Amino acid sequence: MGYPDKPPSQSSRHQGSVKWRFPEVHPEGRKYVLIAAVATFVSLFVWSFLTWPLVGLTIWVAAFFRDPVRVTPVGDDLLVSPADGLVTLIERVAVPRELAGPQALGDAPVLRVSIFMSVFDVHINRTPIAGTIRQVVYISGRFLNADLDKASEENERQHIVVEGRDGRRIGFTQIAGLVARRIVPFVKPGDMVAVGQRVGLIRFGSRVDVYLPDDMVCQVTLGQRAVAGETVIARVGAAPMVGVAQ
User: How many CB atoms lie within 10 A of CB 71?
Assistant: First the structure.
């Protein structure tokens, strides 16, 4: 299971210096990096013409599973992005049947924000609020282009519901894409999570949908790039974004 990045304390916020460093490779991806590296080494003695392409593949696999440190904004009125990627859809939709009902998100339509992750984005997903994991529902399915609207109903996916300390429930869905073939959870029902904590990853290209409760106002626009654990997706009582249906 991943652990939340710790926000800087008030006392240390303006002290010392921060240095850039290469992001670590998440443990879930290390075996894939090792496989690619071994294949590269073997190619030196068998198919030398493949060595440089395999070197590039090894670097890409390591980059795909990178796990950068994130500084998460703090506030009970905030909902942060669960994924890195491009905001491709913002629309009011019916609650997915797996998330409907009084014990989850209810039955009224909600605003859905979809974030598409390319194979070059960080694929570790994070919880948008602090609280308790109430549901983790995995559904097998197809592998359509994750950028398509119907992917939210037909693709392999995993729904997660988090209940905050104030009782507000937030639902979000990890959706596999054309290349992705595995959604890996890091949490289970009953787990306590901090905002921005790692909750899972999707291998090789995918999408995450997050469902906003009615008291939260969307704070992103179509075409904007979101950063998991850092970008504020919605805020309680904020002014509506221009051109965004609420």
Answer: 14
Q: Is 217 left (phi over 0), alpha (psi -120 to 50) or beta?
A: beta
The residue whose two tokens read 């529902």 is 137
Q: Is 63 exposed, middle or buried (0-12, 13-18, 19+ CB in 10 A)?
A: middle
Distance CA 53, CA 87 (A): 32
What pTM value is reported for the model?
A: 0.80
Task: Tell me the C-alpha distance between 18 and 45, whole Å.
Answer: 43
What is the sign of the dihedral through the CA atoms of 187, 117, 223 and 68? Answer: positive
Q: 133: closest CA among 203, 195, 73? A: 195
Q: Which residue has the tokens 């991943």?
A: 2
Q: In terms of Cα–Cα distance, which of 123, 20, 13 is closest to 65? A: 123
Is residue 206 annotated as part of the catalytic site, yes or no? yes
- In angstroms, how far is CA 118 from the centroid of its own chain? 12
**Paired tokens of 196:** 């921005």
Catalytic hit among 81, 114, 152, 206: 206
For 24, how many CA atoms within 13 A lie in the half-sphere containing its CB? Answer: 6
CA distance 2 to 186: 7
For residue range 27-84, list pLDDT tens digits in order: 887 888 899 999 999 998 888 888 898 999 999 888 888 889 889 998 888 999 999 9
Structure tokens at 42: 């073997």
Query: Cα(4)–Cα(197) distance, rounded to whole angstroms?
Result: 4
DSSP 217-233: EE---TT-EE-TTTSEE
Residue 70: half-sphere exposure toward Cβ, Cα within 13 Å: 31
